[in-house]
Amino acid sequence: MRKIRILARISQVGNCGVGWYRQVSPLQQLAKKGKIDLKVIDFNWGEKPVVEPYKMHFNFPEFKGIEDIDKKFYEAFEWADIVYLTRDESMPFVAAHAGLREYFKQKGYKKKLIVDIDDYVQFTRPHNPGYLSFHPGSSYNKMNLKLLNIVDGVTCSTDYLKKVYKNENKKIFVCPNSLDIEWRDKYLNTKPIVKKKKDEIRIGWAGSAGHYENLKVLHRPVLEILKKYKNVTFHYTGLFGDLFEYNEFKNRIRKVKFVDLKKWPEHLKAMDLDIAIAPLADNHFNRGKSNLRVLEYWAAKYPVIASPVEPYKFIKNGKDGILAMEEYEILNAMEELINNPDKRDKLAQAGYNRLNKEYNVSENCNIWLNALTKLNKTSK
User: Looking at residues 68-85, what average pLDDT do you find?
Assistant: First the structure.
């Protein structure tokens, strides 16, 4: 029996961690195991811009004809059973792929167009850089729903996303974010970016720059911790806004530079945290997020303090992490772990063990296989 042929179509929007975690990594695992045939266009780890394989018609964004399509892309589309799309709400992207599907349908080919969605973009928050495109009433918000209606099926990262988007497309499957543990384990003995001082305890947060709203809850707890514990330092990656700019503690706060996606697992481990924080404000947008930040902390063997918001409710409080929402709860949790190194080790090991058991992409890639196989058999 012929293996299912999948073309992973990664646009500029997904040429980053989105494309890697949601499509390329699990699909490469399946191809490696001989369970699918795979072609990928056009993922390059975000190292250079994606050149879209079709002409861009901004004045009249509809599929014009085969003369608008790159030959390599056309042949890959013709070869595939499923064209698996990164979510992209630009009108040329939607028109080109939907148009090609209809073109091949007229030629007698049944091509399934599947899209992956990993954010509840309908409720993008004002502090998020994506708000410029996805503010209420925007054309991108409208195209997000249009895209889900056009495609033959959807994969998403969480049950919450399935629930909120099921009215747009009934054929929606949850494929949870999972990590390549074998790759991550290579960096468990990575040397720290900055060598620790004697008795130093390092608290930190790692993520993208659009989390001002989520990190505000850390402002006062971090300040109180730095005042009370002279051996504590705070480390964080880039951020839009002026949080954590305490002049009196500037020698104990370090802003860590971003790195390329390929280097991220090593870089995260090299932050050499003793306590990792994952705060989230409770709103529609964040409820649609995944638990990826916690999974990455677990992969680095960091004990985690996280907000009890939808994505992080999977944490077993006190066993493989600590759930804390309010400022005083976060402060108490940090103090507990600062003063209890054995508990830090216990939580870190428990999280790492659970990651290996439940969120290893080597096993969970089969969830993608099951979903895509079922979607390939369904009629639109």
Answer: 93
